[in-house]
């Protein structure tokens, strides 16, 4: 009888953790894993406060479906709110690139390359209000990512309807892979379409590129559409396949 009751309570806790919004305060960088404990594969909706380093990014990636070694995990983390966190340097490498033999570590107030690369469970993320930069390929191969949000207090980045931009260089950084809607019009103030900005966006049918765009960085549309439409005055990137 006691065993049956214990099993029922544990099952109920797992179900609650999966659907419930959990808030964790990481007062010491590198301790997220110990604070979450064995609940890490049950949490789908997580709010974090405090400071995060490389060890914490490893934990978040594991919770979002991918281990440090690149194998799938049982992680279910779909909604991640980092608005009240700060990214700090330190901790272990969260990613090893077998092609370049390079280790990737966290940087102060920056989401460094590959931070959330290949996180299949992730659907919505809210970035820190103190974040200053998002490097390339941070959200690449996130097939279910629908929204990237930025708090209004952030003066370096912005989000428009879930699409991520940097303010200083007027760059479109990332259009989420699972963004809803088949046609997208880039805002008129954008000058640069970033590296892999539209990569793996299989739901996308066409993109309207305004005259303001002067640079399209490498593989911006890889594994994506070939169709794009530009304003008549934009001679550098004429319309294709339309």
Written overview of the protein:
The chain has helices at residues 2-19, 32-36, 54-63, and strands at 21-26, 45-52, 79-87, 95-97, 102-104, 110-111, 124-126, 133-134, 147-149, 157-160, 163-166, 171-174, 183-185, 192-193, 206-209, 215-216, 228-230. It is an alpha/beta fold and 242 residues long. It has a domain at 21-145: Ribonuclease Inhibitor (Leucine-rich repeat, LRR (right-handed beta-alpha superhelix)). The strands form five sheets. A five-stranded parallel sheet has the order 1-2-3-7-9. A hairpin with a 2-residue loop joins strand 10 (157-160) and strand 11. The radius of gyration is 19 Å and the shape is globular. The relative contact order is 0.09. This is Leucine rich repeat (LRR) protein. Keywords: Signal. Residues 1-19 form the signal peptide.
Give a short synopsis of this structure.
The chain is an alpha/beta fold and 242 residues long.
Q: Tell me which CATH architecture of one domain applies here.
A: Alpha-Beta Horseshoe
Order of helices and strands: HEHEHEEEEEEEEEEEEEEE
Which value, in Å, is the CA radius of gyration?
A: 19 Å
Q: Count helical runs.
A: 3
Structural class: alpha/beta
CATH class descriptor of one domain: Alpha Beta
For this structure, the CATH topology of one domain is Leucine-rich repeat, LRR (right-handed beta-alpha superhelix)
In total, the number of strands is 17
Helix content: 10-25%
């Amino acid at each position: 009888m006691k065993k049956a009751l214990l099993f029922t309570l544990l099952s109920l806790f797992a179900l609650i953790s999966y659907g419930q919004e959990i808030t964790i305060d990481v007062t010491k960088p590198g301790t997220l894993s110990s604070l979450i404990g064995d609940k890490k594969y049950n949490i789908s909706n997580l709010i974090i406060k405090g400071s995060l380093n490389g060890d914490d990014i490893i934990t978040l990636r594991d919770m979002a479906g991918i281990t440090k070694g690149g194998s799938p995990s049982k992680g279910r983390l779909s909604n991640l709110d980092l608005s009240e966190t700060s990214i700090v340097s330190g901790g272990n490498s969260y990613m090893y690139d077998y092609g370049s033999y390079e280790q990737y570590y966290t940087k102060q107030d920056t989401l460094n390359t590959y931070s959330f690369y290949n996180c299949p469970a992730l659907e919505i993320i809210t970035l820190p209000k103190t974040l200053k930069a998002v490097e390339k390929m941070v959200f690449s191969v996130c097939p279910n990512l629908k929204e990237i949000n930025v708090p209004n207090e952030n003066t370096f980045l912005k989000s428009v309807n879930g699409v991520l931009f940097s303010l200083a260089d007027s760059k479109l950084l990332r259009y989420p892979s699972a963004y809803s809607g088949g046609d997208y019009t880039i805002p008129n103030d954008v000058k640069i379409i970033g590296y892999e900005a539209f990569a793996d966006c299989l739901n996308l049918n066409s993109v309207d590129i305004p005259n303001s765009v002067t640079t399209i960085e490498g593989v911006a549309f890889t594994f994506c559409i070939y169709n794009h439409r530009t304003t008549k005055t934009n001679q550098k990137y004429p319309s294709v396949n339309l």
